[in-house]
Design a protein that fits this description.
With about 290 residues, the protein is of the alpha/beta class. Helix content is about 40%, strand content about 20%. A hairpin with a 2-residue loop joins strand 9 and strand 10. Helix 8 runs parallel beside helix 10.
């Protein structure tokens, strides 16, 4: 895996991933069988869940005041948040700011999966450079080195590479639990739709099943390892000049939180609107500014 300043891409064997996916599909095909003892041991009562929410499910700040206020503090750990919107609506900027602030505040490491060459180390450096000293009290050169070292960037250009990276991430997270140390607390995929849209358009007979497998894996990682998962999605035509998030109805149910963004590029003032939230009513909006 490459650090933020590196250019290493994810390399994987398609055959190996297809075999592993086939095994996963076989498991799903037998999902009507009685649950195993391992699954029974994971059952928790209401008090366990309440304790988990209050003690473990914290918010990771995006560093964008309007979004953090709208979400009650930022990206909730244990949940999958989706940012959708048209081109140049600030989706990638939200990802870069989130990665920068989480790493700068020593909240943990960040894994950034770049699917369209949108990751910008220079933009990260610019965001870090203007952080107030009241937030991060250390010399700028040391801050830059520490933050850049805390962001792991991978280039992922197809669904099989994504399966491989997520598999390796799960192994790494389990290893951190067993051996201790700072673990990844934020997983960013910018964008998820560029990987999933091609496989649900008819070329892959099992494309929709593969999409659901990705969704289940992401939500499992978030829940079991207390990650915040942040993904971006593009918009498609809904007819009559309207637009809607891509990936269809099957994906619509996946995110815990879904925001749509729009941006006035002349002023860099953007708007975030809640489309879906576990606690908030849809339609709530908030302005936020993208620093130039």
């Amino acid at each position: 895996m490459a650090a933020a300043g590196g250019g290493g891409g994810a390399r994987t064997s398609g055959c190996g991933l297809k075999r592993r996916y086939a095994a996963a599909a076989h498991t799903e095909a037998n999902q009507d069988q009685p649950p195993s003892e391992d699954h029974c041991l994971r059952l928790r009562n209401g008090m366990d869940l309440l304790k988990d929410v209050t003690e473990n499910k914290h918010f990771l700040p995006t560093g964008l005041e309007g979004i953090d206020m709208l979400l009650g503090g930022g990206l909730r750990q244990g949940q999958l948040t989706e940012i959708t919107g048209p081109s140049s609506s600030g989706k990638t900027q939200v990802c870069l700011h989130s990665a920068s602030h989480v790493a700068a505040m020593n909240m943990g490491s960040v894994m950034y999966l770049d699917t369209s060459n949108s990751f910008s180390p220079s933009r990260i450096a610019g965001i870090i450079d203007v952080l107030p000293t009241s937030l991060v009290k250390e010399p700028k050169n040391l801050r830059l080195k520490r933050v850049m070292s805390s962001i792991i960037c991978e280039t992922v250009f197809d669904i099989f590479s994504l399966f491989e990276v997520l598999h390796q991430l799960e192994i790494s997270l389990k290893d951190k639990v067993n051996k201790g140390g700072i673990k990844i607390c934020l997983l960013i995929i910018d964008s998820i739709s560029s990987l999933l849209a091609p496989i649900i358009g008819g070329k892959y007979p099992q494309g929709r099943s593969m999409m659901i497998s990705v969704a289940m894996t992401l939500k499992k990682l978030a829940a079991e390892h207390n990650l915040s998962v942040l993904v971006t999605n593009h918009m498609v035509s809904a007819g009559n000049g309207a637009h809607k998030p891509a990936l269809g109805e099957s994906w619509k149910a996946v995110p815990h939180v879904r925001l749509v963004t729009s941006c006035d590029r002349a002023s860099n003032i953007c708007t975030a609107t809640v489309l879906k939230h576990t606690l908030l009513a849809s339609g709530r909006t908030m302005k936020f500014v993208l620093p130039s």
